[in-house]
Amino acid sequence: MLSSVCALGISWAISCPNAFSAEAPPCNDEDVLYKVRRAYEFALSVDKSSHKFRGEAVKETHYGGPNPWVNKHAPSKDYYHKSRYCEATMRLDNGQTEQAYFRIDALKAGEADKYNFDPCFIKHQDASRDDCLYQRSPKK
Question: Can the keyword Signal be found in this entry's annotation (predicted)?
Fold first, then answer.
């Protein structure tokens, strides 16, 4: 009985396992792209660059369970239950390009608009970023 009620999505009054598990938004989601633009604007400002840019060729490279380090400092080992790995090309107004990598982690229990966002830009990273290893899709 409980499983059939949960399958119908009637979970507000009873406890259904993973009834409210959120999916990570797609790579080309408007809010996600806004965050990518803001992060890249900040990266350029640190270098005191006044270049204009646009993002191109946004694509998903992997979607699935998160690597263990995603939940390393989270309240539980399954706080974020899925990770979407994305990449895009950032094209500056002078024609130069740079790869952008970003990871979107979905909460196990929560709403779709609540997610972790972790961007990295190859030419604008600090030494601890390991060539954006944590933002690139996992090796198979």
Answer: yes
Report the Cα–Cα distance between both ends of the chain, in Å, rounded: 40
Element (H, E) at 62: strand 53-64
Per-residue tokens: 83: 């990770």
DSSP assignment of 21-58: PPPPPPTT-HHHHHHHHHHHHHHHHHTT----EEEEEE
| pTM attached to this predicted model | 0.77
Fold annotation for 21-132: Nuclear Transport Factor 2; Chain: A, (3.10.450)
Residue located via tokens 């995603």: 70
Query: Which of 7-11, 63-67, 133-137 is predicted least confidently?
Result: 7-11
CA separation for the pair 83, 63 (Å, rounded): 6
